[in-house]
């Protein structure tokens, strides 16, 4: 059994009320460990540890903070295999993905922010003619809360924690209760790297108990959250009246817009990835595919042929391209959408069935699914499915596709495939999303800002934006 404990003040603790949750392995549907369902008291202990650590950590030199964060990064790299196996087991994602993307990115998050903090600067304004100078101080907030989801567990957990720590805050963090294992292992790495006790505290449990205690805590002054839109709205409702700083990275229903003048092979291969990477469980996946009418039939044939070649299998099999979905309830939710698609007149071009993997019959496997939709307003084209399911439909003009692309409540990312520069500029200006990729997908430069508009969230992460979020700005005006 892989039993997990809370990491508070540098030590590992059982939950005070001795409440535990089962942790399921998506690959075989079996319980393989227990995790704390931490209460308000556990969160309070984490807060007290963080508060005590804050005066010293906030005054630790940037060079020393940087050194420790980079050490954590190096230790994650040194433990790549162990972390990748844990992530794959806990989440159901292919081991190859965990090894090539998730864990290296978690290490990059620490390295990036360890370096970024040494380059972070603030503004000054000389008030010419008034004999005065204004300068901005960027001070750490204090104790901050970081809450992350199950789809990219350590990758997104560290995407929040690393900038928070780099900026001099102390942290109370909660990973998803569905995928807690690598966050638990991170505690050991932090101790080994010499992160002082109490600077980072990791509490495990349900959103409705542990997460709720974090967002309600009167002295946790900022919340950085990634997850579902409904949860984000709830967090805003609780935290905003307490005047907490909030960064909310929420869901997406991202358009992938394909024009006939694109580089076809590159587009086809990337569209396969943007549709089904991580079993389609990435908020950035291009789940609505719009194809210019002149190449629609060709695309449909070629795309479906490629999708049928994807190999659904056990996550530890290196030949697997599609692993297990994260949980049974999530598999059922995705299956419900496939049934909704049928009832809405959708044409199932491939997939749509659960997959039985030999010797792992109770795992949560699903065929990658492509649905040709009768119109852009049907539910499967409007609601976030967050699984290996994409919709496709043709379009006739730039104006039409732009209108359809923007006619959803979300606005996280959009992908555009074209070689027409003027069209690229026109559409990039008008697409309602926080991120536009042109002739690529998920090309990440950690210096760039990251986040969405509309129901996809509030605020921006990434680069100096994250360091700005995790600091309070103060203007000082000196007359001389
Ligand atoms: N990154 C994304 O865009 C993600 C989107 N989703 C979407 O959300 C749907 C629901 O998935 P869930 O696992 O239920 O995501 P969720 O939004 O409930 O969970 C994300 C995190 O928030 C925490 N949380 C939940 N309720 C909370 C509360 N009251 N206070 C504080 N923290 C709370 C959870 O414990 C978890 O750590 C998915 O089917 C998917 O459509 C889910 C995960 C990630
Ligand atoms: O920062 C990234 O590269 C990816 C972020 C992805 C999410 O926030 C998500 O899937 O929720």
From TrEMBL:
Domain Aldehyde dehydrogenase: 21-476
Keywords: NAD, Oxidoreductase
UniProt similarity note: Belongs to the aldehyde dehydrogenase family.
Organism of derivation: Geojedonia litorea
Signal peptide: none
Record protein name field: Aldehyde dehydrogenase
Entry annotated with the keyword Oxidoreductase: yes
InterPro entries, alphabetized: Ald_DH/histidinol_DH, Ald_DH_C, Ald_DH_CS_CYS, Ald_DH_CS_GLU, Ald_DH_N, Aldehyde_DH_dom
Matching Gene3D superfamilies: Aldehyde Dehydrogenase, Chain A, domain 1, Aldehyde Dehydrogenase, Chain A, domain 2
Active-site residue list: 249
């Amino acid at each position: 059994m892989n039993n997990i404990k809370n990491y508070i003040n540098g030590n590992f603790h059982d939950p005070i009320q001795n409440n535990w949750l089962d942790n399921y392995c998506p690959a075989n549907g079996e319980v393989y460990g227990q995790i704390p369902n931490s209460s308000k008291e556990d969160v309070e202990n984490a807060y007290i540890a963080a508060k005590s650590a804050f005066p010293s950590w906030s005054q630790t030199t940037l060079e020393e903070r940087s050194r420790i964060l980079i050490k954590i990064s190096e230790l994650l790299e040194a433990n790549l295999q162990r972390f990748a196996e844990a992530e794959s087991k806990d989440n159901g994602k292919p081991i190859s993905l965990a090894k090539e993307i998730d864990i290296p990115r978690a290490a990059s998050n620490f390295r990036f922010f360890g370096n970024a903090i040494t380059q972070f600067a603030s503004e000054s304004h000389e008030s010419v003619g008034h004999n005065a100078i204004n300068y901005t101080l960027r001070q750490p907030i204090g104790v901050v809360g970081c809450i992350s989801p199950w789809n990219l567990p350590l990758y997104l957990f560290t995407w929040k924690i690393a900038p928070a720590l780099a900026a001099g805050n102390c942290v109370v963090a909660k990973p998803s209760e569905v995928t807690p294992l690598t966050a638990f292992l991170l505690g050991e790495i932090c101790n080994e790297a010499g992160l002082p006790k109490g600077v980072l505290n990791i509490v495990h449990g349900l959103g409705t108990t542990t997460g709720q205690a974090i967002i309600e805590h009167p002295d946790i002054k900022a919340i950085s959250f990634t997850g579902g839109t409904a949860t984000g709205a709830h967090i805003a409702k609780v935290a905003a009246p307490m005047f907490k700083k909030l960064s909310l990275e929420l869901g997406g229903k991202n358009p992938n817009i394909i024009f006939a003048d694109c580089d076809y092979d590159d587009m086809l291969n990337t569209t396969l990835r943007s549709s089904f990477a991580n079993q389609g469980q990435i908020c950035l996946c291009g789940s609505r595919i719009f194809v210019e009418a002149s190449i629609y039939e060709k695309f449909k044939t070629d795309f479906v042929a490629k999708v049928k070649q994807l190999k659904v299998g056990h996550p530890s099999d290196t030949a697997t391209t599609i692993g297990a979905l994260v949980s049974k309830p999530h598999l059922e939710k995705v299956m419900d959408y496939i049934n909704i698609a049928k009832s809405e007149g959708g044409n199932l071009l491939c997939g749509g069935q659960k997959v039985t993997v030999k010797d792992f019959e109770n795992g949560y496997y699903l065929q990658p699914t492509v649905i040709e939709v009768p119109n852009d307003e049907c539910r499967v084209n409007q609601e976030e499915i967050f699984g290996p399911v994409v919709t496709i439909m043709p379009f006739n003009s730039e104006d039409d596709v732009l209108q359809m692309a923007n006619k959803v409540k979300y606005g996280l990312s959009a992908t555009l495939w074209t070689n027409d520069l003027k069209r690229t500029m026109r559409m990039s200006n008008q697409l309602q999303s926080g991120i536009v990729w042109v002739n690529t997908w998920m090309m990440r430069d950690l210096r760039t800002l990251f986040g969405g508009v509309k129901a996809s969230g509030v605020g921006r992460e990434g680069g100096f934006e994250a360091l700005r979020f995790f600091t309070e700005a103060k203007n000082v005006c000196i007359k001389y």
